[in-house]
Structure formats: C-alpha cells, structure tokens
Specification:
single chain, mainly beta, 5-stranded mixed β-sheet, 4-stranded antiparallel β-sheet, 51% strand
Amino acid sequence: MIRKTILPLVPSLLLSCGRKTVIPSTTSGVGGIVQERFLPNPVHGGGAPVRVTPLGSANIFVYPAGNTKTKAASGRSDSDGRFFIELKPGDYDLALDDPGVPRSRVKVEPGKPTIITLEKEIAPP
C-alpha cells in the first residue's frame, strides 16, 4: 500500500548523504520521500511501534492519470529516500517498482512542486 501525504508547499532543499536532492520552489513536478513502513507482528506483541525507514534507490514511475501502460516519466530516490521528478502540469499516477503496491494519484500545478510521501508497507513475516 502506498500511503500518500501531500504537504503544504514549502520551498525546500532536501539533503542526503553525499548527494543533494533539490526540490525547486518554482518548478512543476512531484518530489518528496519514499519510505518503508514495517508493520508490527500481532503474534509477537502487536503493540510494538511501527518502524519507518527511508527507501533509497527506489524506482518511481509516473503515468498520466488512469493510464496503465505509457510512462510520462520516471525517477529514483537517493540514499535518503528523497526524489524530485519534473513534470508538466496535470494529474498523474505514481508507482513504485513493486507490482503489489497500488499507485498514488497526484495533481501537479503550474510553477510549483507537489510534495508527497510514498510509503511501502511491509507486513510481518
């Protein structure tokens, strides 16, 4: 499952170890962070906290909204899970390279980025 969080627009510089992922404040596109969310095991004390970690080197595919075959763009998260993909204004579906994770729809507006958090849920073994 991809959990989508759209945050208010804040011009930002996202830093990572050894490489910077920059989200320009005046460029249309989508950016943010990809995370893995490890769910607690109900058999072993289901009250354990959920663990969330950045997902580095995640492939992110962008499709026009409702289109399942033609990619509009793609990108990859950096070592801290951060990414930015420049896009023309419009509605898009974002997908990670895991076919079991559903797509997430975003609206890209002219002249500003859409900030999003994508979470891949990992079920307990």
